[in-house]
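User: Predict 1-deoxy-D-xylulose 5-phosphate reductoisomerase's structure from this.
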Amino acid sequence: MKKISLIGSTGSIGEQTLDIIRSHPDQFQLVGLSFGNNIETGMKQIVEFQPAMISCSSKEGADKIKQQLQYTATVLYGKEGLIEVASYGAADILVNAVMGRIGLEPTLRAIESGKDIAIANKETLVTAGHIVTELSKKMGVRLIPVDSEHSAIQQCLHENSHKDVSQLILTASGGSFRDRTREELKDVTVDDALKHPNWQMGAKITIDSATMMNKGLEVIEAKWLFDMPYEKIDVLLHKESIIHSMVEYIDGSILAHLGTPDMRVPIQYALSEPNRLDLKGGERLKLWEVGALHFEKMDYHRFKCLQLAFDAGKQGGITPTVLNAANEMAVSLFLEGKISFLQIEDFVDRALDEHKALSSPTLEDIVGVDEETRRIVLSYIN
Ligand SMILES: NC(=O)C1=CN([C@@H]2O[C@H](COP(=O)(O)OP(=O)(O)OC[C@H]3O[C@@H](n4cnc5c(N)ncnc54)[C@H](OP(=O)(O)O)[C@@H]3O)[C@@H](O)[C@H]2O)C=CC1
Ligand SMILES: CC(=O)[C@@H](O)[C@H](O)COP(=O)(O)O
Ligand SMILES: [Mn+2]
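Assistant:
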């Protein structure tokens, strides 16, 4: 029985993780649960899974939970609560399904506590990949990919194949506006941007897919998860999201991972690997129904955020932290209706232009620059 702590339980990845735990009660047990402000959904999850360690964002939320609790559990709140759930001693593995840089400190504390981490929270790897990977090596813990592309790549690699890889090929759907020109992006609405053609996901990542920043973050995520130089990471437009990613080897062979666009597949694999479990309620891929798969060379001018992310990743040091923080703030302003879609990339570009380079940043540097970058981006609209 694998004991699981889950942070970000009320989100898209969180709810699908609970679906996997629910469908395999003989394999998995939820012992720790953390969410933000969605007390109603969180409370339903608590009643169903009865975790011993619980946390939410606010004291008021924690008080509400304590009033309704029908069994004995520890209920915490805020950043400390999030960290306690992430590093909970009774858990074998942490599923990190929070959105954004907020996941960094919980990840580091979970690694320090010796837990393997199934990581969906790509922003943590983007902002502090060198710290997270060094600490995990030192502690002998594993970072197991949940992101569909990285799960696919992991499944196309095998022991000792690293030296024979010529390229990791990340596939990109193109997001909600893939068939529009840059000119046509000027007046797009939040509602339009939230309509991803293939995946049902949280709001922030859906906007990132539309700007192609999601793929940019994934390039940096791949660099850290697979210890691969940027020169060996490529992105290919593939509008069907059936091939989740590929690995090309030095002899020209390409191994690909195919499946329906269902995040429960990589989540379940991250929890069960190297074994595989029946995906209960999962649809099988019927290739005769798909008929044809399409691929296009990436246009880095059309999808400028991808170029910004590649450049920031290559520059390294503090620059990916600036990219991520500026993007998180700009996307949140877009979702609040305060800026236009194309201003997201403008704001990220401007923050990158104005930032001061710093090599080998410490955790303190990263937290400081993250906060400062958010303030700077906010000042662009005031
Ligand atoms: N959704 C998907 O299919 C995929 C997502 N990912 C990545 O996984 C991560 C999660 O994405 P997704 O599930 O879509 O995001 P959602 O926005 O749907 O969920 C985010 C979760 O994080 C919680 N949360 C947010 N802020 C805090 C906080 N300050 N303290 C505690 N909890 C907090 C939210 O709680 P609450 O709502 O209660 O406030 C919610 O449970 C992202 O990094 C994303 O890029 C990667 C691949 C696919
Ligand atoms: C499901 C998943 O992993 C997302 O990151 C997905 O890849 C988004 O799709 P695109 O970024 O390719 O539009
Ligand atoms: Mn992905």
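Residues 44 and 382 are 40 Å apart (CA to CA).
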